[in-house]
Amino acid sequence: MPAARPPSARPGADPGRRRFLGALSGLPLLATGGLAGCGEEEETRVDDGPIELSVFWWGGPKRAEATEQALGLYSQQNPRVRFRVTWQGLTGYYDRLATQAASGNVPDLFQIDDTVLTEYAQREIVLDLSRYVADNRLDLRGVPQSLARYGQVAERTMAVAAAQTTAALVYNRDLLRRLRMPEPRSGMPWREYVEWAGRVTGASGGRAAGTTDPSGDYRALWLWLRGQGAELYQGRQLGFGSAELLDWFEFWQVARSGRATPNAPLMEQADTGDLSHQLVVTGHGAASFAWAHQLPELQRQTGDELGLASFPGSTAAEWARASMYWAVFRGTRHPDVAVDVINFLTTNVAAGRILGIERGLNASLPVRQVVADGITDQVEKQVTALGTAVNDLLGPAPAPPPKGHAKVRTLLIDAAENVRSGRTGAHAAASRFMAQANAALAE
């Protein structure tokens, strides 16, 4: 991953911005508290001169190239607006976002995900976009209702999906062909999926596990819970009890005893989230769990052909999920222009063609269809085909995760790794997780 472009200093931060920066001092993420001086009147100020917007996102070179081209197209159509862009990999992204703020360079427009959306909304870091949606200056009429809702906190639109994705099963087609094993089906019942994985491990002579061990994967747990009528969260609390988590841990203990999953050290590497360490590309497993839009990047990591299917369990447990969002800083000097840029990236067909599916399927269904019709790459076609196949089967969107979600994700990984390695029993790990996770959510 190339180093992020060094941000250039922005002269003369306004008073509201300076108050925001002062509140940031010493915090690992972003400020707690509101932005005095950034009221409704300031937000609606008319921009009548040259405008420069700072834009920040995470991703690789391909995402950077496409995003800059799309922003360049906006500037062609709006010559007085230009962009100063910064991008980097996800690792350290949120720390850098805070560092930019502390140096006086808060980005006007930036990319976030559902890990921090609620927290940033509650801290009044992101601009409330509701009034722009109400008068269609931010036109979400082509965005699926559940996808639009997944950008709302307390019924206010605080961010807009940059794209839609789905949790997916990525499997090694060539490996399964060599083993003369069938491919997994979309929506296989969980127990049937684990039985299939055990047969794959056996057919490989133990050289490759049939499936990853997702006991520490919050996506998998969330969908498992939704398949049983529960949720990962209920407001600012966990939406399930220790009994459900114990069932989850014990389910994967049985899978491990049946040799369906790999050993603990291999799973600890995969738990880092680094795509190059996913078992489906390292040769240590036939299937991994990932986001559907990550298939092209995973395919670039291996010479074997990869396939894509929906997660095990009912597809109705899934929802139209934002792969990531575009958000506007509440202290921006140019809120109307920043929102117009989001609207352009969401609804403009030419911009949609440039952006492709690198972040996932376009949030706007009309643009998504045009983009899909023009795709020729076979790997990208799999992504769009899965999105089309499941779109009408998805369930309602839950509220975005509450503040503390990032800590809960880490605690789940730690608990699962302790169980896998035998350092802790499943019952003790589940009880400890419940106590620590609820404490993290209460902070």
Report on the architecture of this protein.
This protein is an alpha+beta fold. The protein has helices spanning 15-24, 40-43, 61-77, 93-102, 117-122, 130-134, 145-149, 173-179, 190-203, 218-227, 242-257, 264-270, 279-282, 295-300, 335-347, 349-355, 365-373, 378-391, 405-421, 426-442, and strands at residues 51-58, 81-88, 109-112, 152-153, 156-157, 160-165, 167-172, 233-234, 237-238, 287-291, 306-310, 321-328. It folds into two domains: 43-163 and 322-377, Periplasmic binding protein-like II (D-Maltodextrin-Binding Protein, domain 2, 3-Layer(aba) Sandwich), CATH 3.40.190; 167-317 and 404-442, D-Maltodextrin-Binding Protein, domain 2, CATH 3.40.190.10. The strands form four sheets. It has a five-stranded mixed sheet with strand order 2-1-3-12-6. Strand 4 (152-153) and strand 5 form a beta hairpin. The longest helix has 17 residues, at 61-77. It is globular. It starts with 14 loop residues before the first helix and ends with a helix. Mean pLDDT is 89; it is low at 1-46.
